[in-house]
Model the fold of this input.
Amino acid sequence: MRNPLPTLLGFLALGAAIFAGSFYVTRQVCVMRMENPADDLTWLRQEFRLSDSEMAHIRELHQGYMPKCAVMCARIAAKKQELEDTLLGATNVSPAAEQKLAELAALRAQCQAQMLQHFAEVSQAMPAEQGRRYLAEMQRLTLGSHEQIEQSMSDHTGHELHQH
Amino acid sequence: MNPATLIPMNQDRPNSEDEKLGRLLRESRATPPLPPRFQDDVWRRIEAAEAPRALKSPAWLDALAGWVLRPRLALAGVAALILAGAFLGARDGAELARRDSQAHYLAAVAPNTLR
Done:
């Protein structure tokens, strides 16, 4: 037999190509079949295995919440613009800027409270166990990022204080 | 004894009787014709014998190649690779779709300004 090494290597490369091709094609098909960009609620249906009637109720809640959310977002954006205008050219934080910051924080808090209220309502439209899981997941996803930042800041500050 | 009377054992002078005998012997022996491409074969054998040992594949490699390249086994291997790729691709695709859908929902109900 001639040297079989090139044949074996070729066979190995062919095998790798077949595996990779199969992997990527299946993954793409799976993503295309499972995703529905037109519907915001695809994740809820799939993740919490909701029935059609539960989905219909949640869809109503969602459609009722979206305009309120849009209004709050517009108010927050306007307040941010006011704050930027106040800070423009200033070398110090003026009382007016402090006032705008407080108003912005209040608006954000109001918006967050409204959002959490919506999550609570949606969770109540689900079976009890799924509802608890949904609420915990949404709180983790929306409030958890703040906690992480605050935790990292306090760790950092504590570390620096300890060094001094 | 007189050295001139000694008879040398090997005489260079050809004996006519010996020559005759030799001719008869050569004629009596039949020379078979050489097989076709005899010279090529001889040279090939010489080259193969002189080739460095490193170029020769080890026996286990030959055995492995012989085992792996059997059509039945090769076919089974290809089928196994396709199935494994499809299984892992489906698992990865499902996870990817789940994360994308979650991000889509989150972007709708909790804009970045609130997170």
